[in-house]
Structure formats: C-alpha cells, structure tokens
Amino acid sequence: QVQFVESGGGLVQPGGSLRLSCAAIGITTRFYNMGWYRQAPGKEREWVATTSRGVTTTYADFVKGRYTISRDNDKNTVFLQMNSLSEEDTGVYYCNRNPPFLNSWGQGTQVTVSS
Fold it and tell me: For 30-89, how does the pLDDT look when each residue is reduced to its tens digit (9 = 90+)?
C-alpha cells in the first residue's frame, strides 16, 4: 500500500521560510515524478510543484522563485523549501506522485502564515 507522510509544517510569520519533508512508503520514488500539492481553507486542492524522475522541476506560477522542490531517492523522500511566505500560502500541504495516486493521500502538514 502506497503511503505518504508529510512533516515540517508550522506557524511562520510573513516573509519567513519552512522546509517540508515527505516520506514515501510502498513505492520507490526514483521511478516516479513526485509532486507537492496544497489545499487552502475553503478551496480545492491544487498542484504546487513537481520533480521529475530526471532533474526537471516545474512550479505553479504562484510559487515560482519562492519554492524549491527536491528529492533524495536513496531515502525515498521529497522536500519542499518554501521562502518568502505570505498569508496566501496558508494551507495543508501534501505530497504524492504526479499524477497522484488517488487513494494514497496522506494527512498532510499544516502551514500557517500569520503575524
């Protein structure tokens, strides 16, 4: 069974940074494009960033230049470095394959940006 365990969220002031981690269980991440997604309060879950099986990374326009996705295939882990956070970045952040395994969403990690 495929599972994802996200961590690293928290409360941060505007302009601050956080680094999220995602441990993948039941899959070997090196064989997949992996992504981060987020769900803001009252909104649908949306795609944030993808790291391909190679070295390509892609980002949603609203995070370009602020977020960096990376991976450590030896540890089956995916990361999301988030800088210059604003209140609009508040939400629950999830990782999954891209495209996602629909029955394997984890609990996510809450990111709250507030002064």
Answer: 999 999 999 999 999 999 999 999 779 999 999 989 999 999 999 999 999 999 999 999
Predicted pLDDT of residue 54: 78
Instruction: Give kind and range of the element (H or E) at residue 70.
Output: strand 67-72
CB 106 within 8 A of CB 94: yes
For residue 64, with 0-12 CB atoms within 10 Å meaning exposed, 13-18 middle and 19 or more buried, which class applies? exposed
SS3 (DSSP) at 29:
helix
- Output the CA–CA distances (angstroms, integers) from residue 49 to 29, 43, 55, 57, 100, in the order listed: 15, 18, 13, 7, 12
Task: Calculate the CA dihedral of residues 93, 99, 100, 103 and round it to 10 degrees.
Answer: 160
